[in-house]
């Protein structure tokens, strides 16, 4: 009888979908299930239904496991990757939601962040992060200030307020609330040197210690998934999980994940203090063999920018993608991609997207200008980080938008580095599978195609204008 193929169940709970993939020890994806999830926007509020997120993950997991049985596969472990900086409150007993899931896109924690008595330089020194209203701390403080009953329950240890990952882990496995170091390090409450919640930060934001889940390593015995007996062996944030999609990450390569936002990570080979201001440092891996840190750049307007132009021009998503994949016949008008505000290194949440020289009339030109504006903001963001990483030799691009040749070609030219377009779009799921499987030696990088950096004087001139516009935004 043929031996069953061992696979890892990789769960990826993202902004717009929950995924369950079966990944073999060589990194090949043998099956995938996708369940869309809704995102509600009401004024400044950007929220999701926690129960719907749990249900989507459970349904996707059960369908994937059924496929494993039919296909002669044997699931041996599971990993969970989640969107970061999304927070909610829930009951410590039973993990029942007490609030909606406040999305990472939601910036209603801004006032609480401004009220924090610690200066931004001190916050960055303790956490490795550039303080932002999108991080969890401000939103947690805002929830506790807005609801006296919730605060009393949190102080009494009856309610938990924390990252979405901790809620999902508790619902999927039971036990006490726990959070992985990767998601914890994205909250502005985690001391990077301490490797745990930082008392000075909890006091500064008014967060009672009893309200938070316990911190654990990324690679940890989290428990068994309900109804399956399958051990959950790794939990992480989506972007640092994607850093491991091809196995152990290379220090000479910036790993760029192009999804709703764009996130570029590189393993840290210098002291965290040497990472330029405006860029984050976080936990890339943590387990029995130690801890790996990574420097990170964040751009808000990637897939979100295409959604924005689609809404603005009343174009279907498939039409926008078709137009975005075309190489324009002439240079598009200059577009400042501040969709969702400017991320690293500017951190201007109130910056607005605009065409400094006027919005184009034709839909094709409008979409092309957004794609080029996306390349400009990503290249400008990477340039500042690359200055502290002199050994940087390449960019490896994955995620849904890596299919856009006009975007990657411009990025290669502007960065002066080859860009390797990864054929497999499921970088986050592959990364969490590699971690959950215990770094299997047979793991193979996903196939990729090299895009050479070609000099383009006209593009460079437009980039110079774009950088000036970004600085002025």
TrEMBL record:
The keyword Glycosyltransferase does not apply. Pfam families: FGGY_C (PF02782), FGGY_N (PF00370). It comes from the Bacteria. GO terms for biological process: glycerol catabolic process. Keywords: ATP-binding, Kinase, Nucleotide-binding, Transferase. One of its GO terms (cellular component) is cytosol. The keyword Transcription regulation does not apply. Residues 257-437 form the Carbohydrate kinase FGGY C-terminal domain. GO terms for molecular function: ATP binding; glycerol kinase activity. Residues 8-225 form the Carbohydrate kinase FGGY N-terminal domain. Belongs to the FGGY kinase family. This is Glycerol kinase.
